[in-house]
Amino acid sequence: MKLYQSSSSPNSRRVRIFLAEKNIPVTIVPVDLGAKEQFSAAYRAINPRSVVPTLVLDDGTAIGEVTAIWRYLEEAHPGQPLLGTTAKDKAQVTMWERRAEQEGFAVVMEAVRNTVAGLKGRALAGPHAYEQIPELAERSKLRAQNFYADFNEHLKTVPFVAGEQFSAADITALVTVDFATGGLSMPIPAQHTALQAWYDKVAARASAKA
Amino acid sequence: MKLYQSSSSPNSRRVRIFLAEKNIPVTIVPVDLGAKEQFSAAYRAINPRSVVPTLVLDDGTAIGEVTAIWRYLEEAHPGQPLLGTTAKDKAQVTMWERRAEQEGFAVVMEAVRNTVAGLKGRALAGPHAYEQIPELAERSKLRAQNFYADFNEHLKTVPFVAGEQFSAADITALVTVDFATGGLSMPIPAQHTALQAWYDKVAARASAKA
Lengths: 210, 210
Prior knowledge:
Two copies of one chain form a homodimer. The first copy, chain A, is 50% helix and 7% strand. Chain A has helices at residues 10-22, 41-46, 66-76, 87-113, 134-154, 168-184, 193-203, and strands at residues 2-5, 27-30, 54-56, 62-64. Chain A contains seven helices and four strands. The first copy, chain A, has two domains: 2-76, 3-Layer(aba) Sandwich (Glutaredoxin), CATH 3.40.30; 87-209, Glutathione S-transferase Yfyf (Class Pi), Chain A, domain 2. Chain A starts with a strand and ends in a 7-residue tail after the last helix. In chain A, β3 (54-56) and β4 (62-64) form a beta hairpin. Chain A is α+β, with helices and mostly antiparallel strands and 210 residues long. At the A-B interface, α3, α4 and α5 of A face α3, α4 and α5 of B.
């Protein structure tokens, strides 16, 4: 298996941490986003959306979208499950991972892409060009603050985002915090001590370096 | 099992069609969105995000988010699989369902919520109030047109959205077309004949009436 990815891409990191937790070996193929390599004909033949990451199986099948790559890896390598075990567990992980993604990760991404000068005219990843909307970026920053507050409340009640076990939901929430800190200068506010304690715990895992 | 839902909610319909395809019986509990019942204390105790649908299991476990409800139903009722069978299949369904959702369904939802007078101050579902952004709604409509064009190209190459079999990806794409048609007066453009042929085929299934 080959993972086409970028070391600076938060979506790529969601897959790298997943691989590290499950100890699955892959060949890493760097895609140079700075040089716009994702728009090259060679990469578009692998992923027509021109986004990273993409997992390419040994038979040539290309899988895009983080949750789809995770699904393949979990089904093909069921050891150290990160997407839940029982039907109920799996649903809880899916729910909380999606909430972390929709209320956190995607919101931070939206704020960054609608703000950064280098992404002018490229407010959304993918093959189509869209202009930035500054008002949307402001709303996204407000949503990111609400994400912090809501997840702080939640993490007063459970040790990990989806409940009792570390899961993919923690990976998305961890990458969201680091992305907000680095990309928006929005670290966890000091009053959110439950969220900070959870963060310190998951950031200390070896996989977080991936 | 109880499904808290609204007959007018496109996200609820994604679950109703899934249930109909798999022939799983549930007790339907209507939530009156017009009367803002989703914000009642009783419903917030079931789903703190104040959104529909929510699946409540016999042990009281509440599952929100369409993809999480689907995951539970697929794992607990594996007959008539709609989320794929092999690891590779499951990844393809996840990828294409997500693309239909992110490039289609969520885009139409964004256009509607940032436009409709009755949703002023409620531009995003959930517990927090956000103002509408008209410029965003315009961008969403442009994205919806790109969704139609991109999926038309894709459906020239495969009979169903995720490949050879009907799957959850078709459900999301079908509900997206009906939502765009009803909510934005944006039916499939006449030139997209592959998309229209796919639509006619899936809309003719008995489950589409759900």
